[in-house]
Each structure stands twice: as structure tokens, then as C-alpha cells.
Amino acid sequence: MPDSPTPGPDASDRGGSGREGSGPDVPHDELEKLRSRIAALEAGRTAPRPAHHRTRAFVATVLVVLGCLLAPLGVLAAWTSSVVGDTDRYVQTVAPLASDPDVQNAVANRVTDAVMQHLDLAALLQGAAPAQRPLLEKALGKLGNSLEGAVSSFVHDKAKAVAASDVFARIWTEANRKVHSSLDKALTGSGGGAVKLENDAVTIDLAPVVDQVKTRLVDSGMTVAGNIPEIHTNITVVQSKDIGKVKTYFRLLQIAGDWLPVLAVLLVAAGILLAGHRRRTLIVAALCFAFATLLLGIALTVFRVVYLDHLPSGVSQPAAASVYDALTRFLRTSVRAVVALCVVIAVAAWLTGPQRHAGLVRQLWHSGIGAARTTADRAGMRTGPVGPFVHRFRTWITWILVAAAVLAYVLWSYPTGWVVIGLALALLFALCVVDFLDETDAGRAPAGGGPPAGGGPPFDGGPHQGGPERTTA
């Protein structure tokens, strides 16, 4: 039986024309290493995965899924702890409502109804002294066909003026600061104080506003308003027939506080560490985390419509919408911040990966910086000892910049989506400066060709990138 022909270097190296002298000779040992590597890769693709690898992948998937499911609950828990648990944050949230036109109009309507119920219109002019009647008639203006309508309009104007004044803003802010603990009790199951839970509603007493309206009526000539007794009328902040049912879950979220979002992040991080393809798992987990949080934002919008549609007829829908938007503003801001952060992480993980398109983006990045550096060199700009220093410690500098961006986000009191984007752009600019300053001892900047300095991973110069890299001029 004749021996099988053994392919030699000439038979195996047929990437070119196959003719002798068409390209550089490749050593036989290098070809054997390539064959061994290709065989190992093909064996790895066809061989069944070990059982412990499948178990790790399953556990990693479960952890990532649990973390993503806890993501919206974590944002809700942080909102509950912040708005209800922090007095200053709560006052900062509701303070702008004092200048909201819809809230002012709702307050004026409630105060007007309460005052009109205690005014004796029949004895209004009869009880006034003869010397006061001209002043009273002038204050009331032309009564028209209805004394009640004219008086009601007059009272409403005074109430609207009080609601639009700085006095009401001060009363509103001070009242909400004082009753913050009562609001906490109301939303977690117990009532008391100026804010209480009655008939599945959270209400605020407007007695100080009524007193201000009475004072203005008396000052305007309607002295009989001074005989009105102390009136306690309420404005509804939140009302829902299900508020009594969900207060237990509200209390649980308040207890969880900031620990629930931390737990969600730790579960996702553990799943990424257990996964076999960590970079790919990181990208998928970040996008799933963002999607789960985005669902919370969509649910807030849907619930707003349902909530307003089920309000009783006596509650002002425009004012209720303003209150709802104010109370959920921090929650919506948190949703946007988390979504922006997850997208930034996913994009960063993809750009630093071995994918062909990611490599092309990195090449464009380094080529642009290399062109800018070449122009600066021609203009006579030199980095001096800074360039070699950056080249030597580039890895450390890069990680320090990344850690600084992460620390800034963590220490930011209430980061928004724009804060996340701003920090990402600032980090990108800092990395651009580092790449621009990176220069070897020989005075040549490595940007644009070869692997990044400082021990960073080289571009994946496999076949998908078109062969060996070329140094950018």
C-alpha cells in the first residue's frame, strides 16, 4: 500500500497564486502551529460542551434574568425611599406645585365652595351698616341677575389671588414639610395630622388658605366674611380605590430602599462572571436591564391615563395630573438614567470586543487621532516627557479615568440621563487626550497602528480585519 502523500509547505501554502516565488516563504513549524490551532478550534466547535459548562451557563442565565426582573422594582424602591423617606427631597418634589396653574385653580375652587357655604347671602346687605353699603356694593360690582353668582365670582377672585401669591407658596411648602411624617404614615397604613388617609385618598387641609381669603375679603369691604367660622376643607393629593390594597407593598418597597437595586445589580454581575462568554453576556444583560427598566417608564405612562380616568367627579383632573407628574418626576428621571447607563455600558462593551465592526470603529478612532497627531507634529508641537510617560502607564491612566467616571456617577445625588451621557462624553474626551499624548521614547505616536500602548489588548487582526495591520502615517 503506497504511503499517503504528506502535504509539504508548497502544497499547504496556497493563499497566493501557488507559483514559486509568488510570496514570502513560511517556515514549516509555523504552518504546523497553524494547523494545530485550526484543528483545536474545529474540535472545540464540534465537541459537546461539558456538563459543568452547561450548568454554569444555566445558573448565569437565571441570575441575569432575576436581576433584570428586579430592576424595575429596584427603581421603585429607590423612589419610595427617596420621596417618602427624605423630607427635603419630598418638599423639593412638591414645592413647584404651588405655582402650577391647575393646582392653584383647584385650590381656589375648593376654598370658594367652602366660603360660600358659610355666607348668608340674604343677610349680606341687610346686616351691613348703612355707611358700609356703598363700599360693599362697590366691592361686589354689578350684581347682575344673580347675587350668589356675583359673590361667588368675587370670592373666587380673592381665593385665586391668594393661591397665586407668595403667601400660598410659603403655606404650601411649610405644610408639606410639617406633614411629611404624616404622609409617610398615611401611605404605609396609618393616618393622622394634616395629611390623612380617608376614603382611599391622601388629602391636605386648606384651613390656612381659607383664613387668608377671609382676611382679603374683609380688607375689600366684605366685613361679614369676618363672621365666618374656622373652615377645614381638603384638597386631594392622591386618590385611588386601590390605595388601601397596595399600601402593604408600598411599605415593603420603602423598607427595601436602596438595597433592592443593589441586589439587582449584584445578581446581574454574578451572572456575567459565571458566563463563559462574559463580554457577550454583559452586552445582553445591560440591554435586558435597560429594557426591563424602560417597561417601568411605559407602565407609568399607562397608569397615568388609567388613574385619571378613574378619579371621582369632584376631583380636578388637571390638578391631579400635575400632582401625579410631580410625584413621579424623580421616578421617570431614574428610569431614563438607568436606561442611559445600561446603553452606555453595552456600547462600551461592544466597542472593546473582537467583533469586526467594533474593530473598524476603533481603527477609525485611532486613525483620526493619528492624523491629528501628525498635523500637530508638522506644526512643531511636542509632548516632551509627557508622551513617553503616558505611553508607559497608559493602562493605569485608562483605568483611573474609568474609575473616576464611575465614582462620579455613584456619588452624584440624583443622576439623570443627561448626567450619564455627559460623564460618558467626558470619559471619551479624556481617553481621546490620552491617545493623542501617547508617544514612544523614539518620538513616534502609536495611535493608528499596532496594539494600543500600555499593555492593552491588540485589535483582533484576524481574517475578518483584512490581514495584518498597517501603521497609519
> If you average the pLDDT, what whole number results?
76
User: How much of the residues is beta strand, in percent?
Assistant: under 5%
Beta-strand segment tally:
3
Strands across the major sheet, in which order? 1-2-3
List the helices and strands in order. Answer: HHHHHHHHHEEHEHHHHHHHHH
Radius of gyration equals 36 Å
Q: Which parts are unreliable, with pLDDT below 50 for 5 consecutive residues or more?
A: 1-23, 141-145, 189-195, 447-473
Observed structural traits:
mainly alpha, 3 strands, elongated
Characterize the structure shown.
Helix 16 (356-378) packs across helix 19. The protein has a 3-stranded antiparallel β-sheet. The chain has helices at 9-12, 28-46, 51-83, 87-94, 101-116, 133-140, 147-163, 166-178, 180-187, 207-219, 243-256, 259-274, 278-309, 317-327, 329-351, 356-378, 386-392, 394-411, 417-437; strands spanning 195-198, 201-205, 234-239. Strand 1 (195-198) and strand 2 (201-205) form a beta hairpin. The chain has 19 helices and 3 strands. It is mainly alpha-helical.
Summarize the structure.
The chain is mostly helical and 473 residues long. It contains 19 helices and three strands.
How are the elements arranged and paired?
Elements: H1 9-12, H2 28-46, H3 51-83, H4 87-94, H5 101-116, H6 133-140, H7 147-163, H8 166-178, H9 180-187, E1 195-198, E2 201-205, H10 207-219, E3 234-239, H11 243-256, H12 259-274, H13 278-309, H14 317-327, H15 329-351, H16 356-378, H17 386-392, H18 394-411, H19 417-437
